[in-house]
Amino acid sequence: MIPELGNLCLMLAFALAVVQGVLPIAGSFNGNRRWMALARPTAAGQLFFIVLAFGALVYSFVANDFSVAYVEANSNSTLPVYYRVAATWGGHEGSLLLWVLMLTGWMFAVAMFSRQLPQETVARVLGIMGLIGVGLMSFMLFTSNPFDRLLPGALDGHDLNPLLQDFGMIIHPPLLYMGYVGFSVAFSFALAALMGGQLDAAWARWSRPWTLMAWMFLTLGIFVGSFWAYYELGWGGWWFWDAVENASFMPWLVGTALIHSLAVTEKRGSFKNWTVLLAIIAFSLSLLGTFLVRSGVLTSVHAFATDPRRGLFILVFLAIVIGGALTLYAWRAPQVGLGGRFSLFSRETLLLINNVLLLVCAGTVLLGTMYPLFLDALGMGKISVGPPYFEAVFIPLMLPVLFLMAPGLFMRWKETSVKQIALRLKWVALASLLTGAAVAFALSTSVMAAVGLILALWIVLATASHLAQRLGHFAAGTSLRNRVASLPLSYWGMLTAHLGISIFVIGVTLVKGLEISNDVSMHLGDTTSIGGYVVQLTDMQRVKGPNYMAAQGTFVVTKAGQTIAVLKPEKRVFTVQQMPMTDAAIDRGFTRDLYISLGDAVSDNAWAVRVQCKPFVSWIWAGCIIIALGGLLAASDRRYRMALKKNRKVVARSVSPTPITVAE
Amino acid sequence: MKPRHKRLLLILAGLAALGLAAALVLQAFQKNLVFFFTPTQILAGEAPHNRSFRMGGMVVKDSLVRQADGVTMNFMVTDTAQAIKVSYKGMLPDLFKEGKGVVAQGKLDQNNLFVADEVLAKHDENYMPPEAAYAMKKAKEAKEGKPAAASTPVTPVEPINNTTKSAQ
To answer: Which of A100, A428, A607, B51 has the maximum number of C-beta atoms within 10 A of its C-beta?
Structure first.
């Protein structure tokens, strides 16, 4: 009964989405206020029904209703209840429902926080989001309905893939989807602006906080995914340039370009067309990512063959969304006009370079991800493109981006003297060069690692120097507290995110450059040493988990006779699927992680063991969190909330020249 | 500088960046494209000897032998027509099993021993790596005298996207 109610709710939400996608947009063109006024209530209605539908699916999982095919495929009665809830988005159908839930959530937020926007804009933005919802919901209703019954019902379920039975499963997909779907707001704003032909600073100011929030969620989502892969896959890698990861990374790269380009559009009125294009691309890649990961296209193009309707639907939907948006863009963009002019040496130019590089990066990742799929689909042979390709392409492209982050801070809008910048950054350059080189030499790392360290320091020092300069600009006698408080949050957000980038770069550089990994076979009592630590296997036990059996090793880690940690990695076998899994044990630290994974038994009393020392890996996670925090700070800037409170007259004012030292 | 010149310079810089990126991509592509060969193809001498490639099929039952050092494994991979001996030093992925599909990446030595530096299996007990399924399908078609159509879709039992990797 409950699943049928869920299905009904889904259908009602679909009907509302159709209304929302058609009438308000039509009304915005023929001036019918009643039609336009439908945008908000239909958004609220959709959220209501989708929450009910989602609740119904969660209920089916919690109540172990194995007569629902999707529940049967992804859950089991022995599964702990929180994983049963998380199993709701453990498969294709449920994650689509989660996607739609997020979409209606964002939609409702836009409906709530857009009181001061012109009614036409609200109608168009929500209408476009409604159309996206129509696409996604019809995909669910026609090809992948999570509420489909299994007749006759099963006694017990197939179980959730053991790899997904982790805390990461509870938060990773929702965060990632918040990010993916969040870009639909920027996308809808961009299309609405194209429809109205009004692309001004006000438009950029409305889009910015939404885009920043989406970007922040995406950053967190990718981070949690990587963090999860690191401890869960059991072998200590944290980024594999796997197609699934790339699918989430591409929208991030374009989203990063977008938030920078939006800054220019807001402050200077330039790059309008470019910003709109980026908003379209960012969301298109999010859609592509969603479908690539969940439809099974990625593991094999042939997964299309399992349900040709699904594949066809995806292709048609992507073609309509991307093709439609680009057509609208091609038609309307020429009327948008150019913004403020700027000289070659200006902040605009640097941000443009940053944008081009980020976009090129996304393009190369896209090529490496899609090319094998295309070749395979065309029957031209099976190839794969591995991490060496991505590293060979990505790193050289990112180096100039990192380098330009420092002068970018000091560059002024419109025009800057290069000499001035050079003078200002002289000491920063010298200090980072010397310190970075010295550290690299002391740790005897490669040249590449030295370059990474120098660049990271270059960003940190330049950021600090810029902050000092801004804080010094106040009238004498202003307390430090007042100075700090009167700098805008968006500025702090920018500093924080850039700082996060450099911490991340340090982490990546040192892990890549200094990690050690030993595969050994150990008897009870055997020791092995790694990076100055001595690891001894002292015990081996059988342990029983709620839904698995495991062999558990006890390893005592000592350094100079002192016990540092006792690690207990496990080799688990999950009972339902009879699936083995490595559960690594990690001793986390500020400067290094010790990572032990237990392999198979070599003989009756010896086990294969992989011991790894990963220097500064925690810095990668810290960097990601700080980057996301920067996004949050920037999105909470007073300016955006003020903009909401001001009336339309102010909102519609033309771009005013902003103080040139204001950095966003 | 006139705006026209400025724009020209910007466009040139953009083109240069694109050109550089294209050069990097092409170079990296050429170096790092990994081709796939079935055991039959390898024994027919189609696979290169000095370049890394992927091969796959089914792990032959009872062929897994742990070497004296305790961490090197040898096993046979077959597409049901031919079999190739594979050697791998390190931890095999959790789902590596005799009688199940596997894909390995590495180089072929002079004695047709495939020295793998990466072994892949998928995270599901029923799942067959698409390449492995493809190898066996091709061998089957060859046996039945059908032309091996490269574009014939292979239907994996249950596609799951997480790839478990075990690299040295």
So the answer is: A100
